[in-house]
Amino acid sequence: MKNLLTILIIFLFGTFCKAQQTEVSVLKYEDLEKKIQLEKDKLLVVNFWATTCAPCVKELPHFMEVNHQYAGNPKFKMILVSLDRLVDKERVLKFIKTKNLSAEVVLLDDIKRMNTWIPKFEKNWDGNIPVTLFYKNGEKVYFNDGEMSKEELEKIITENLQ
């Protein structure tokens, strides 16, 4: 029994460590758009945030709870798109570790063209963050401008994950 418990603890620790990113992909808008289109068979939650944005940081624990809740569902995926500067990549990696972010995190290094790509994601997006977009079958089904509660997040996921 003691050996079984030890094996279970090692397995859970390994799973937890594996879930956390040790590197962050740096993408341009076109790369992120392709990444979103590759997930056509899923309900995809795409959250735009930054480590320096207080409302973003405040809502991330809710996103991690929900991401953990749906982790075993092959029809669900969450991507956290950091809008931090490329020179702050190490800060983003440290943030991932200290905040135990389990969703995939990418760094969108395309600030100079933001006035071009923001309206491509959502015509009503004024550029402020946090912003969350929900895609189902490759099509945007919901746009949330501002901080989200866990209840709001769960409601939109439940409505679209069928």
Automatic annotation (TrEMBL):
Pfam families named in the record: AhpC-TSA
Thioredoxin domain residues: 18-162
Keyword annotations of the record: Redox-active center
Keyword Transport carried by entry: no
PROSITE patterns, sorted: THIOREDOXIN_1 (PS00194), THIOREDOXIN_2 (PS51352)
Cell membrane among keywords: no
Top-level lineage group: Bacteria
Identification of the protein by name: TlpA family protein disulfide reductase
Organism of provenance: Chryseobacterium rhizosphaerae
